[in-house]
Amino acid sequence: MQVITRPEEFDVTDLYVDLERIVGRRVLMKCEGFNFARSSKLKPALEMVTLAERAGVLRPGSTIVEMSSGNLGVALSLVAASRGYRFVCVTDPRSTLLTRQLMQNLGTEVLVAPDPAAGLRLVRRLCAENDGHTWLDQYANAGNWMAHFRSTGPDILRTVPDLDVLFVGVGSAGTLTGCARYLRQVRPQVRIVAVECVGPGPRAARRSSAVRTSVRFPVIDMSLVDDLVRVDESAAIRACRRLALSGFLLGGGSGMVLAGALGWLEENDADTAVVISPDLGDRYLDTIYQDQWVKDNYGPEALLDGADHEFPYAKTLFEVP
């Protein structure tokens, strides 16, 4: 029996799903969403807060400030509530109402900025004008990737010692960079494939809370990556919906990585592939799992038809530069 006193103490790290019966090839999905934050962002949130505490930046009465439109904001809300800090999350219109309500119910003050540039100005102003306000800056904070260097990377290799290729979503690149740096040191022959979403038009603004970024932030070290796969958002949505028909309700980031992995595996050989699933699907019920929302934002082609029991997008909706 596991007994905990703080929510961040619970985090399932050894759960893998063999997707062969669903996708037709052996792909192991490492599920990172089984914690009270419901995503892989609990690890970097905890690491960044702990490092700030050790450095004396966070003290009793301090306020954490961070920009997030999704999972990191929820994870930091949880950690801040557990450790007695105020948390101000600066988000943007892409964040869902459900995500904002969840953060607010954990005690977070949520401020909505019209775009990332305005959000950045607001974060800097809050910290400049208020004593005790600390910006963690996830995109430049080493704790973002160190959490995965110390835990996720070793966990994968311990569980799957014969790993050939690892697929990771880009996002803020904490998971990607941490796992890649660990594997390059310990098992350099493992291929590392980064996966990111692209929308219609050049670097279109993302309309769902999937893994998303439009610029390369300092935490990313793309020299550690063997391949970069770009996945159409519609393919990510269809992957999520196909998994749901088999009983696995996962988030947009999980569908994106799986879609990219299957596309890459159509063109490359690998005996043992692991896909990191960063999130669960309950926060996406009113977006990617809602038919009308999908049709309004992506068109009817983003929906599975009644006869679609496979992953038909594997060869057509990805690219490997």
UniProtKB/TrEMBL annotation:
Alphabetical list of Pfam families matching this protein: PALP (PF00291)
Keyword tags: Pyridoxal phosphate
Cofactor requirement: pyridoxal 5'-phosphate
TM regions (residue ranges): none
Domain Tryptophan synthase beta chain-like PALP: 19-278
Gene Ontology biological-process entries: alpha-amino acid metabolic process
Full protein name: Cysteine synthase
